[in-house]
Predict the structure.
Amino acid sequence: MVSHEMINIIYLKKMSNTFVIGICFIILISSLFYADQVAYAHFVEPKKGDICPICGMSVSEHPLWVAVIMFSDGKHVKLHGPKSMFTYYFNLEKYDKKYKMQNVSTMHVTEYFTEKHIKAQEAHYVIESNIHGPMGAELIPLKDRTSAEAFTKEHGGNILLFKDITPEIVNSLKNIVSDNLPTRQ
Ligand SMILES: [Zn+2]
């Protein structure tokens, strides 16, 4: 005869097996989801012939200004500078109806001093400085506040965070005339 204790042990074993399988399943699903999230979050090096969708300039010819918007499905857009990147970002549906801001997985910009590609959301931006890009006034990406202050000391301008940047600010830069200003190609 099987005792109550035996039944309890068998029952507990069965339960714990189900539990372990359940946990494994959750880990598997969440890792797949996570892999999908992080797989498409990298910078993409521009190739010869890549054209900025905003201004039509060659992206690879201006490596010090390159910006890339990456969507969660892997589609990415290479832009020739932060001003073009923000213009695209604020008008996503105008350029591709499939995408909204929540579909953007990462954006990268090229940092002014180090010339490295950094996350756009983590950068500081200087506007209205005396350094202009190939398309005139720009938002100059700096990796942190210290770098941004060092930059403004030399070149003037105002420091903004990613979240402070609005379509109005980006549009206002389009009206600034670049005559006789140092242009960084
Ligand atoms: Zn452009």
Observations:
- The mean pLDDT is 88.
- The pocket of zinc ion is lined by residues 52, 54-55, 57, 79-81, 84, 135 (CB under 6 Å).
- The first strand starts at residue 67 and ends at 71.
- The CA atoms of residues 86 and 118 lie 15 Å apart.
